[in-house]
Amino acid sequence: MVPGCEGRVNAETKKEVLQAAAAHAADAHGMTELSDEVVEKVKASIVPTS
Questions:
Q1: Residue 25 class from Cβ within 10 Å (0-12 exposed, 13-18 middle, 19+ buried)?
Q2: Under 8 Å CB-to-CB from 43, ≥6 apart: which residues?
Q3: Residue 24 CB neighbour total at 10 angstroms
Q4: What is the DSSP string of the chain?
Q5: Under 8 Å between Cβ of 36 and 42
Q6: Which residue from 35, 7, 30 is spatially nearest to 20, judged by alpha carbons?
Q7: What's the distance, CA 30 to chain centroid?
Q8: Is 41 exposed, middle or buried (0-12, 13-18, 19+ CB in 10 A)?
Q9: 20 to 30 A from 45, CA-CA: which of 5, 24, 30, 36?
Q10: Is the predicted pLDDT of residue 50 greater than 80, yes or no?
Q11: pLDDT attached to residue 21
């Protein structure tokens, strides 16, 4: 989503992933809002874990 960022999120639901990604974007990158493009990239990168 942000070039060079290797941030990872672990969460139970897609909604929690997006919330954590938004929090990371704000804290680490100063992003106050996620664009639709970034949200779609986050959703596309979600993989289930066991």
A1: buried
A2: 14, 18
A3: 17
A4: --TT-------SSHHHHHHHHHHHHHHHH--SS--HHHHHHHHHH-----
A5: no
A6: 7
A7: 13
A8: middle
A9: 30
A10: no
A11: 95
CA distances from 48 to 12, 26, 38, 44 (A): 9, 24, 19, 12
Contact by Cβ (8 Å): 44, 38: no
Q: Which amino acid is at 34?
A: L
Length of the chain, in residues: 50
What is the amino acid identity at position 50? S
